[in-house]
């Protein structure tokens, strides 16, 4: 029973860390795309999206 709970908690922590990794990756990609879009347009600043 204790082994089952430890395995469950380990799976939850790995899932949570993986979710945090995916969230940080998605946010970095989104920020990079916004920065690239603002640089591509040139005349439109990035701050209008925030």
Description:
With 50 residues, the protein is mostly helical. 80% of the residues lie in helices and 0% in strands. The protein has 1 helix and no strands. The protein has one helix spanning 2-41. The longest helix is centred in the middle third of the chain and has 40 residues, at 2-41. The protein is rod-shaped and about 60 Å long. The chain starts with a helix and ends in a 9-residue tail after the last helix.
User: Beta-strand level of the residues, as a percent range?
Assistant: under 5%
- Given as residue ranges, the uncertain stretches (5+ residues, pLDDT < 50) are none
- Let me know the number of strands: 0
Radius of gyration, CA atoms, in whole angstroms: 19 Å
> How confident overall, as mean pLDDT?
81
Main structural class? mainly alpha
> What's the order of the H and E elements?
H
Give the oligomer, counting copies of the same chain as homo and different chains as hetero.
single chain
**Separate helix tally:** 1
Which shape, going by the Cα principal axes? rod-shaped
- Terminal CA distance reads 49 Å
């Amino acid at each position: 029973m204790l082994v089952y709970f430890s395995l469950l908690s380990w799976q939850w922590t790995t899932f949570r860390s993986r979710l945090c990794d995916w969230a940080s990756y998605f946010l970095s990609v989104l920020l990079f795309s916004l920065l690239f879009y603002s640089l591509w347009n040139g005349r439109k600043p990035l701050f209008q999206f925030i």
